[in-house]
Structures are given as structure tokens and as C-alpha cells.
Amino acid sequence: MESIPEGGTILNTILLEAASRSFSASNVTILIIIILVLLLLTAITAGSETAYFSLTAKDINYLKTKEEAGSRQVIRLLDQPKLLLATILVANNFINIAIVISTNLLVNSLLPSNISAMFSFLIQVVAVTFLLVLFGEVLPKVYATQNNMRMALFSAPVLKIMLKLFMPVSKMLVSSTSYIEGKLGVKSINNLSNEDFEHAIELTVGHSATREEVNIFKGILKFSNITVKQIMRTRMDVSGIDYEMKFSDVQKFCIEVGYSRLPVYKESLDKIAGMMHTKDLLPYTEHNDFDWHALMRPAYFVHEGKLIEDLLHEFQQKRIHFAIVVDEFGGTSGIVTLEDIMEEIIGDIKDEFDEDDLNYKKIDEHNFIFEGKTLINDVCRILGEQSDIFDAVRGESDSLGGLILEISGKFPSINETVSFDNYDFTVLEIEKMRIKRIKLTINPAKEEDE
């Protein structure tokens, strides 16, 4: 009679152990999945910290030209860098704590119950350190360093969610940091504007250098923020060779325009077939029926939003001096040359073939005559003013004529005067609905009132 209970007790024990093992196995699986998800999240947050704060100005400008949702998210996140950094740090700490707790539960469920507490603790420390350092710090940050743009775009949706989840804590950290900075009197150098730097240049080298040398220093300071569109020669002023021209006509045309490099187009300037170096024509000047198309070289195309700093590096690498500028629709906006880029630093470059005062005439210290096609940057340089003095009203215009249209809001008539601050613009000549000549007057009275 006693064997029956004993058999029942053994059977019950076996069933309980089996149920316990089954429950334990399911817990282990869930914990492993949780740890893997948490490791992925900590890798994203750690990598995004490196990626976002290693983006350069040209990377950010590139993202601003894109219309994808990911690019817009990245720009919005970077608009509040302190809040972004606080969110990343807070989220990373919460995730790391969750990994520590989950790993502790996993190790305890896998190790035998009779193992010493010290040995269990050492195993947990080693396991957590290995996981966090390798998968949560080293690998994602190494990847983000080499692929910062890709990592920033990939992590943008995750950071957007984290920003909403940890907003109260992040704002509290940012506020406390700002309060401490205010008490300590900490001032970041990033808050210095270009005007501050230019003033520093005037103070440090203004007394020992000529005005031209000071302008070169200022040109170097602004060089990295200038786009091709701001310095290019516009389409209206581009001379090109028609692909269907005869060789004799090509020679005459090259002599008339006097340029060393010319684009070759089919039908219109929107269809550039290549470019021509006029020096390549010299050996064949005696051949009236020569097929000049064989001398054409491939054209180099750049987007009008490209920074001239990057374009200069490309010119150096490819050993070219000339590029066709295209807009967002692929049409030709104009041309840009190595000389145009260098003039942004050292000022106007004149050679023996350049005509003096081609685009403007100085009447006196306060009055100038400009052509409407003159670029705003060139006008500012001639006047000795900062290149951003008209930024508040210039809109998308690059020429002086476009600036007048932006200020007036309508097409002005001849002899009509448009004013901005202490500058008066009088339209002198209009040709085919295009402002051709402008008189610019600097009003000293307004300048003194300001």
C-alpha cells in the first residue's frame, strides 16, 4: 500500500520539474529577445550621437536640399542640438539599465542554484560589460564615424519617438544645464557670429595689414558658406557654340567673344553636348572644312547649390577650370570657372583682355552705375560692405536687378527709385522686360541716422 503513494509522489515530482523546466525555457527565450532588442536600441542611440554631432556644414546643406522625410527629420532634430543630446543620453542610460536587469535575470535562470554568489556576480559583470562595450559603444560608433550621414538618416525615426518619450526629463536637463552655464558665465564659441569673427580680424590684423589683405582674411572666413549659384555667370550672359556651326563660323565666334573655354550646345543651352578649348582650334585654322567636333571635351556639370569649397577640391582633383551649373530640373543655370572661385578670396582678377569697369562705373563716393545683371556679392565687394547686408530682402535673387524686383514687389518703371536702408536704387534703363542699368546711391543722411 505504501508503494502507491511513493509512486504518486515520484510522478508528481517529475511533472513539477518538467513544468518548471518548460516555464524556465520560455522565460529564457523571452529574456534573450528582450536583450537583443535593447542592444539594438542602445547601438542606435550610441551611433546616432556620433553621427549627428559629426555632420559638417556641407552635410547639413546637402540634407536641406533633399525632400525626403528622413532628411527633414534630421534637420528638425539638429535645430535643437542640446535637447537632442539630452534625449540621446537619457535614452541610452535607461536602455543600459534595462540591459543590466535583463542580463541579471538571464544569468540567474541559467546558472545552477548551488553556485556561489561571487561567481555569479563576476559572470554578470563580464557578460554585461562585453555586451555594452562591444555592441553598445564600439561597433555602432565606429560605423557612425565612417557613415555619419547614413546613420543619421537611419536613426532619425527612432530618435523622434525617444524625443517624445523622454521630453520631460530631457527638457529638465537642458534647463538645468543652461542655469548652471548662466551662473558660471560660460559662453560657447559657437555663439560667435561671422560679424564677431570679422571684427576680431579687424582688431588683430587691421593695423598691420593693408585693406586688400584684410579682405582676403574675410573672404577665407566666408568661403565655406558660399554656393555656386552665388558666384556663377548666369545663363543670360553665357556664350556658347552651336553644335551645327561650320568650322569657319566657330573660329569667328571664338575670336569675337574672346573666351578660352566655351560650352557646345544642341538646339539650346539646356542641351550641353560638351565644351571647347579655343587653343585646340589653333593647329587647324588653315582647314576650312575641318570637323571641329572631334576636338570637343566632356562637360563637367555641378548643381547650383554646391558649395564652392567642394567645387574647388573637385577642380583640383580633376584638373579642370570650367563647369556647367544646372538647376533642380536639369536645365542650365549658368557657368562657373576657377577664376570665379578664386575671386571670392582675393578679389577681382584682371588680365590684359578684361575691360575695365565693364559692369559698373563709380561716379563719386556715394553714387555708382551698375548693370542689372551684376551679382549682389560683387556689388557688396565693390561697395566694401558685408555680403549679407541685403539678405533680409534679396529672397532668391542673385543679381542687382533681381534684388530691386524683390524690394519693390513689382516691375519698376524707368527713373523709379526703390530704397532699402541707406541705399537708393534708381532704374535707368530697361530692355525687353529686363532691368539693364541701375544707379545706386548711398544716402549719408540715412546712414548717420542709423
Describe this structure in words.
It is a single chain. This protein is an alpha+beta fold. It has four domains: 182 residues, no CATH class; 30 residues, no CATH class; 119 residues, CBS-domain; 90 residues, Uridine Diphospho-n-acetylenolpyruvylglucosamine Reductase, domain 3. 56% of the residues lie in helices and 14% in strands. It contains 17 helices and twelve strands. The strands form three sheets. It has a five-stranded antiparallel beta sheet with strand order 8-9-12-11-10, covered by helices on one side. It has a four-stranded mixed beta sheet with strand order 1-7-6-5. α12 links the parallel β5 and β6. α1 runs parallel beside α5. It starts with a helix and ends with a helix. The N terminus is likely disordered.
Question: What would a concise description of this structure say?
Answer:
The chain is built from 17 helices and twelve strands. The chain is α+β, with helices and mostly antiparallel strands.
How many structural domains? 4
Average pLDDT, rounded to a whole number, is 79
Helix/strand order, N-terminal first: HHHHHHHHHHEEHEEEHEEHEEHHHEEEH
> What spatial form do the alpha-carbon principal axes imply?
elongated
Alpha carbon gyration radius: 34 Å
Q: What is the strand tally?
A: 12
Q: What is the SS-derived class?
A: alpha+beta
Strand content: 5-15%
Largest sheet: 5 strands, antiparallel
Spans of at least 5 consecutive residues whose pLDDT stays below 50 are 1-8, 14-23
| Sheet with most strands: strand arrangement | 8-9-12-11-10
Proportion in helices:
55-70%
How many angstroms does the end-to-end distance come to? 113 Å
